[in-house]
């Protein structure tokens, strides 16, 4: 990496990130009257091309497909029904990526499109495939452009916003930094539109934002995320060991250079294994196992495997190796894990000691190596 020595940079963890994920929102690339704003997109490409020229790798998570399709279809606002939104995404995604391809080509950079649905990351095999695809694109010198596949995603399998997608991609891509760009220049301790508010410079613990009320909508009406979704995504990445900067798109160059702009979410933990991360943040539980208090203590405090003796009931239709939630007597989700039995096998096992079970059933219901504790991020 060229430029100032890292010791002289305000945020060396971002400036020194050899592989960085950059997410840009619809509000930064499009407008309701005119759809895709080519000048804004080109300005962002200039910044990212400069980052690439310094020897760093970039993965771009870009919203904007639906918004880019509004003007060509003669629509004056974001569609409320799923079919029209999917149609707008079909038209807009092609225009969006072609515009990116042309802009990056002027810098000698080839781009590759990666379209994902939540289903692609909630299924373990698909999650691994996404990792391999991104890794191979980067090894070939290609800049991956990731977006949610809005043309096929249904309400039930949507990420809902690309901030969460970007946090997941940061782990999938094994990135060392994440920058979330929008039309807001950081996290404030109040709403700057309604009164005095101070920009929060650094968040090192969820408690730092305990008293902060976060907004829930973008300013220009074409995006789906707000500051609350960005903070949630930032905590997901930070707890997985990836530092995050939340700032405005015009400040992208400064943020990537490690300057003190926007809000930094410092890494709050070590990078978990891919399996642990997937279980906690990307898996979709297929059912529930209801635990007695003794099992809760064993799982939460002793990090023990879950045995049949501590299970009082089940919910849902799941198969062996499906992800399930482990729930305490008070309804609190304690952990997620991969269950060793089908739901239909469980009634005969409930509450029974391992030694009393038939030999083929004398194994953990959820092994501790296939389990991750679940707690609130903020």
Descriptive overview:
This protein is 32% helix and 18% strand. With 378 residues, the protein is an alpha/beta fold. The chain folds into 2 domains: 6-276, Acetylglutamate kinase-like (Carbamate kinase), CATH 3.40.1160.10; 285-373, PUA domain (Archaeosine Trna-guanine Transglycosylase, Chain: A, domain 4), CATH 2.30.130. An 8-stranded mixed beta sheet has the order 5-6-4-1-7-9-10-8, sandwiched between helices. Strands 12-11-13-14-15 form a 5-stranded mixed beta sheet. A two-stranded antiparallel ribbon has the order 2-3. The model is unreliable at 217-224 (pLDDT under 50).
In short:
Pathway: Amino-acid biosynthesis; L-proline biosynthesis; L-glutamate 5-semialdehyde from L-glutamate: step 1/2. This protein has two domains: 6-276, 3-Layer(aba) Sandwich (Carbamate kinase); 285-373, PUA domain (Archaeosine Trna-guanine Transglycosylase, Chain: A, domain 4, Roll), CATH 2.30.130.10.
SSE topology sketch:
Layout: H1 12-15, E1 19-24, H2 26-29, E2 30-31, E3 35-36, H3 38-53, E4 57-62, H4 65-70, H5 82-105, E5 111-116, H6 118-122, H7 124-139, E6 143-148, H8 162-172, E7 177-182, E8 202-203, H9 227-239, E9 244-248, H10 252-256, E10 263-265, H11 274-282, E11 288-291, H12 293-300, E12 311-315, E13 323-327, E14 333-338, E15 371-373
Parallel strand pairs: 1-4, 1-7, 4-6, 5-6, 7-9, 8-10, 11-13
Antiparallel strand pairs: 2-3, 9-10, 11-12, 13-14, 14-15
Helix pairs in contact: 3-5, 8-9
Protein name: Glutamate 5-kinase
Pathway: Amino-acid biosynthesis; L-proline biosynthesis; L-glutamate 5-semialdehyde from L-glutamate: step 1/2
GO molecular function, one term: ATP binding
């Amino acid at each position: 990496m060229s430029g100032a020595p890292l010791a002289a940079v305000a945020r060396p963890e971002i400036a020194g990130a050899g592989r960085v994920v950059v997410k840009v929102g619809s509000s930064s690339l499009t407008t309701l009257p005119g759809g895709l704003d080519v000048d804004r997109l080109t300005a962002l490409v200039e910044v990212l091309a400069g980052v690439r020229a310094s020897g760093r790798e970039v993965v771009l998570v870009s919203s904007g497909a639906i918004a880019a399709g509004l003007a060509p279809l003669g629509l004056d606002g974001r569609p409320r029904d799923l079919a029209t939104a999917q149609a707008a995404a079909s038209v807009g995604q092609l225009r969006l990526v072609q515009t990116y391809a042309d802009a990056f080509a002027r810098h000698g950079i080839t781009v590759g499109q990666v379209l994902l649905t939540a289903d692609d990351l909630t299924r373990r095999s698909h999650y691994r495939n996404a990792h391999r695809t991104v890794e191979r694109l980067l090894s070939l010198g290609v800049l991956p452009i990731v977006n949610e596949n809005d043309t096929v995603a249904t309400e039930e399998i949507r990420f809902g916003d690309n901030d969460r997608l970007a946090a997941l991609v940061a782990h999938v891509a094994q990135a060392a930094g994440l920058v979330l760009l929008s039309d807001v220049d950081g996290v404030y301790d109040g709403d700057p539109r309604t009164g005095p508010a101070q920009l929060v410079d650094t968040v090192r613990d969820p408690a730092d934002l305990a008293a902060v009320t976060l907004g829930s909508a973008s300013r220009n009406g074409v995006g789906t995320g707000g500051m609350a979704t960005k903070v949630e995504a930032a905590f997901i990445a930070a707890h997985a060991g990836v530092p995050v900067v939340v700032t405005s798109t015009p400040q992208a160059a400064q943020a990537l250079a490690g300057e003190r702009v926007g809000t930094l979410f410092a890494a709050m933990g070590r990078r978990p294994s891919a399996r642990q991360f997937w279980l906690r943040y990307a898996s979709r539980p297929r059912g529930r196992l209801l635990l007695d208090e003794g099992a809760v203590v064993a799982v939460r405090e002793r990090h023990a495997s879950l045995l049949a003796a501590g299970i009082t009931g089940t919910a849902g239709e799941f198969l062996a190796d499906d992800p399930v939630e482990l729930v305490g007597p008070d309804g609190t989700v304690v952990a997620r894990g991969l269950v060793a039995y089908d739901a239909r096998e469980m009634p005969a096992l409930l509450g029974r000691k391992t030694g009393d079970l038939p030999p083929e059933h004398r194994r953990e219901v959820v092994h501790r190596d296939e389990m991750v504790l679940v707690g609130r991020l903020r």
